[in-house]
Design a protein that fits this description.
heterodimer, A: 244 residues, mainly alpha, two-stranded antiparallel sheet, two-stranded antiparallel ribbon, 6 helices, 4% strand, B: 163 residues, 2 helices
Chain lengths: 244, 163
C-alpha cells in the first residue's frame, strides 16, 4: 500500500479506517467492514420501510420486501421442502448479505466485499461444515451413502465413490470461487473500460457506452450470483436433509 | 492482488462474523416475522373473503332453488286448474248437446207423425174427391147415374193401378 497506484486492482485494496489490534490480531475497521455494515443497514432500512405501513395492497417498497421474502422462501421450500424452512432465516440472510454486497459494490468509489476470496471462502466453508453436520446429525453414518447410492455395482462404485467424494469436497471451493471470479472480473472490466474513456479523447464515447452496457450486465450478474450462491446452498442442504 | 494479502484476512473475517451475525439477527427477528405477518394477514383476509363469497353463493343458489320450486308449484297449480275448467266446460257442453239432441229427436219424431197423419188424411179425402169428380163427370158426359160406392171403388182401383 506504499504506492497509491490507480490500476484496475486498486479498487480491491483494503484500507484501514480505524486501526484496531486485539491480542496480536489485526481487526481494524476497514472499507470492507464499512460496506458489510452498510449491507446490514440497507437490509434493516429496506425491511423497516417495507413493513412500516403494512397495507393490504402493498406499496412499491413493501412489494420489494415481500418479493424477496417469497422468492427465497419459495426457493427453500421447493428444494428442501417443509422441513427445510427452519434454515430459511439463514439462507435469507446469506442471500441479502451477498446481494447487498454485490449491488453496493457497483456504486462508483464503493468497495465490493464479495470480491474478496476470503469472505466468500468463509461463507462457503461455514455452509460446507454446517451441511456436513446436519447430514450426519440427520442420518448418522448413513450420510456416507451420499457417496455411493444404493444398488451401485462394485466396479462402478470403485470409480464413482472417489469422484463423489471429490465433488463433495470441491463444493466450498467452487461456491466461493464462482462469486469471487464473477465480482473480480466484472469490476476489473469496468475499470479497464473506464480508463479508456479518458485516454481516447473524443473517441472515448465508445468505451463510455460500453461501460454503461457492462454496468447493466454487472447489475444482472450481481443479482444472479447472489441467487446462485443461495440456491446452491439450499441444494447442498437438501442433500443433507433428504439424502437422495 | 489485494485479495491474496493474508494480513487483511483477520480483520475481514472478524467483521464478516460480526456483520453476518447482526444481519442474521435483523433478518430472523425483524424482517422475516414482519413480512411473514403481512403475508399471513393478507392470506387470512383473502381466505375470509373467499369464504364469504362461497356462503353468499350458497345463499343465492338456495334462493334460486326456492324461486324455481315456487315457480314449478304455481305452474302445476295453473295446469290442474286449467284442466279442471276445461273438463267442466266440456262436460257441460256435452250434456247440453245431449239435451238439445234429445229434444230435437223428439220434435222430429212428433213432426214426422204429424206429417204421416196429415198425408193419410189427405189421401183419404183424395179418393172421395176423385170419386165425386168421376160421378159428376159420368152424369154430365154420359148421363149415367153412378152411386158413390161404385165410384169410390173404381177410383181406388184406378189409383192402385197407376201406382
Amino acid at each position: 500500500m506504499a504506492t497509491e497506484d490507480q490500476g484496475p486492482m486498486a479498487q480491491f485494496e483494503i484500507k484501514s479506517l480505524i486501526d484496531l489490534n486485539v491480542g496480536g490480531y489485526d481487526i481494524s475497521y476497514t472499507n470492507s467492514a464499512l460496506f458489510m455494515t452498510l449491507a446490514v443497514i440497507c437490509t434493516f432500512s429496506l425491511f423497516w420501510a417495507a413493513t412500516r405501513k403494512r397495507t393490504m395492497v402493498p406499496s412499491r417498497i413493501q412489494s420489494i420486501g415481500e418479493l424477496m421474502f417469497e422468492f427465497v422462501a419459495g426457493m427453500v421450500k421447493e428444494n428442501v421442502g417443509k422441513e427445510g424452512m427452519k434454515y430459511f432465516p439463514f439462507i435469507f440472510t446469506l442471500f441479502v448479505f451477498i446481494l447487498f454486497g454485490n449491488v453496493l459494490g457497483l456504486l462508483p468509489y464503493s468497495f465490493t466485499f464479495t470480491s474478496h476470496i476470503i469472505v466468500n471462502a468463509a461463507l462457503a466453508v461455514f455452509i460446507f461444515i454446517a451441511v456436513t453436520i446436519i447430514g450426519f446429525a440427520t442420518h448418522g453414518l448413513h450420510y456416507l451413502r451420499l457417496f455411493c447410492p444404493a444398488g451401485t455395482p462394485l466396479p462402478v462404485a470403485i470409480v464413482l465413490v472417489p469422484i463423489e467424494i471429490m465433488s463433495y469436497f470441491i463444493r466450498p471451493v467452487s461456491l466461493s470461487l464462482r462469486l469471487f471470479a464473477n465480482m473480480l472480473a466484472g469490476h476489473v472490466l469496468l475499470k479497464v473500460l473506464a480508463g479508456f474513456v479518458i485516454s481516447l479523447g473524443i473517441f472515448g464515447v465508445v468505451p463510455f457506452l460500453a461501460v454503461g452496457a457492462v454496468t447493466m450486465l454487472e447489475i444482472m450478474v450481481a443479482l444472479i450470483q447472489a441467487y446462485v450462491f443461495a440456491l446452491l446452498s439450499t441444494i447442498y442442504l437438501n442433500d443433507a436433509v433428504h439424502l437422495h | 492482488m489485494p485479495q491474496f494479502d493474508p494480513s487483511t484476512f483477520s480483520s475481514q473475517l472478524f467483521w464478516l462474523l460480526i456483520c453476518f451475525v447482526v444481519l442474521y439477527w435483523v433478518v430472523s427477528k425483524f424482517a422475516i416475522p414482519r413480512i411473514g405477518d403481512i403475508l399471513e394477514q393478507r392470506e387470512r383476509v383473502v381466505q375470509d373473503d373467499l369464504d364469504r363469497a362461497e356462503s353468499l353463493k350458497g345463499e343465492a343458489e338456495q334462493t334460486l332453488a326456492d324461486y324455481e320450486a315456487a315457480m314449478a308449484d304455481a305452474r302445476e297449480q295453473a295446469r290442474t286448474l286449467m284442466f279442471k275448467v276445461t273438463s267442466d266446460a266440456k262436460a257441460a257442453a256435452e250434456s247440453r248437446n245431449r239435451d238439445i239432441g234429445e229434444e230435437l229427436t223428439a220434435q222430429i219424431a212428433d213432426a214426422e207423425q204429424r206429417i204421416a197423419s196429415a198425408r193419410d188424411e189427405a189421401m183419404a179425402s183424395l179418393t172421395s174427391i176423385a170419386a165425386d169428380a168421376a160421378k159428376d163427370a159420368a152424369s154430365r158426359l154420359a148421363g149415367l147415374e153412378v152411386n158413390s160406392g161404385d165410384a169410390e171403388a173404381a177410383v181406388s182401383a184406378a189409383m192402385k193401378g197407376s201406382r
